[in-house]
Amino acid sequence: GPALLFVKTSQGKEEGRRFYACSACRDRKDCNFFQWEDEKVSETRLAAREEYNRNHQPTFTHRQNVERYKNFVLLPLSKRRFCQECQQLLLPAEWEKHSSHRFLCDISTAQLKSPSQFLYPLENKKTNAQYLFADRSCQFLLNLLIDLGFRRVLSVGTPRLHEMIQSKASQEEDFRVRSLLLDIDFRYSQFYTEDEFCHYNMFNHYFFGGEAAHETCRKFLYEDNGEKVIMVTDPPFGGLVEALASSFKKLMAMWKETGKEGQGNKEMPMFWIFPYFFESRILDLFPSFSMMDYQVDYDNHALYKHGKTGRRQSPVRIFTNLTPRMIVLPVEEGYRFCTICQRYVSSGNQHCEICNSCTSKDGRRWKHCVLCKKCVKPSWFHCNNCNCCALPNHSCEKTDSCCFVCGKAGHKRSACPSLSRS
Ligand code: SAH
Ligand code: ZN
Ligand code: ZN
Ligand code: ZN
Ligand code: ZN
């Protein structure tokens, strides 16, 4: 889909030079598309680009993959193979071609319903950054959605949630929830029909399947028989918040357009799952949102730290435009209801009398600084040089440039401690 327009700024200079680059791949190694905004592109180069794109299409189209799947499920267990190198379901006639590759054999129907369990997570940090929900968190999200009365889930970059919904729907007769997965990971087209999965780029709101895919999404968002829709998204954390927000607003607009007049000023309900240090950036773009204290856990996520309780501490939270008090967090996991804030908070999150709110972001008890006039992390102290609270070992001079990710001074986005993964 379309590239994004960026600007190269050099320090001290007001205006930078603008250029187009790939919206989805933040690593030039994954996609080296680069073009100055004012650059003239020759016919030859255009042709070469188109040629390159033609040669880099997936082996099969979504439609072909759906046909292949139909044939695959007809095979006896002993003939159901998945090539781990090509990440592809194989039909017997293709075994030969993959003979030097590693296979998974005897793929059961249950396995086919949980592809995220055997597709390897695309961990490539800057592009796909596939971090899958731990079962506990996925179950929590689904139960929450059901308790809130939602019957349709637009799963944007949440394959595991989608898969949990799909597999329950096929197994439990009275399970009424449906899901549509929008994701850039085309491997999923092998397991889901065109009504269940759209190949989609959430950084530029691009549907690879064109108008037909648009229409699938539109239909899904149309709330007939009062079936309430919610969108759940868990984008890669290295992604540009502004680009994501712009796409999500377009999805919200799609929902609004499909609605009857009754919708008035309402927004499509949404859960945006993202680290807590993006709070101010998200709230700037979505003023109706607030951040919940629930810590979303992942299977393959190295962002875990072991807190003093031995429970892993995840920095990932749910941002939502639903009324906070509706989001009931599990008491068994240590969450409680604050009657003043009218929302569920972490057990360690103390209500601060001066701020008049439960101020902790990371689940630990924060302390109030009278000079900063706000609560700060327990490990911080007030620095008179910087005129704000900081870690005891911070260096005072490095305050000129701020990190793109967490907004703090002293390091660049690439070195942001909030994003470091082992
Ligand atoms: N926790 C989720 C997965 C989140 S990982 C779950 O368990 O279901 C981020 C997801 O976003 C991955 O599925 C990845 O394929 C998808 N993704 C990454 N870049 C994307 C893009 N540009 N457009 C759409 N989806 C993208
Ligand atoms: Zn292969
Ligand atoms: Zn409170
Ligand atoms: Zn306070
Ligand atoms: Zn202070």
TrEMBL record:
Keywords: Cytoplasm, Metal-binding, Methyltransferase, S-adenosyl-L-methionine, Transferase, Zinc, Zinc-finger. One of its GO terms (cellular component) is nucleolus. Pfam families: N6-adenineMlase, Zn_ribbon_GRF. InterPro entries: Mlase_EEF1AKMT1/ZCCHC4 (IPR041370), ZCCHC4 (IPR039846), Znf_CCHC (IPR001878), Znf_GRF (IPR010666). Residues 403-418 form the CCHC-type domain. Residues 1-40 form the GRF-type domain. GO terms for molecular function: nucleic acid binding; rRNA (adenine-N6-)-methyltransferase activity; zinc ion binding. PROSITE patterns: DHHC (PS50216), ZF_CCHC (PS50158), ZF_GRF (PS51999). Transmembrane segments: none annotated. It comes from the Eukaryota. It is found in: Cytoplasm. Signal peptide: none annotated. This is ZCHC4 protein. The gene is Zcchc4.
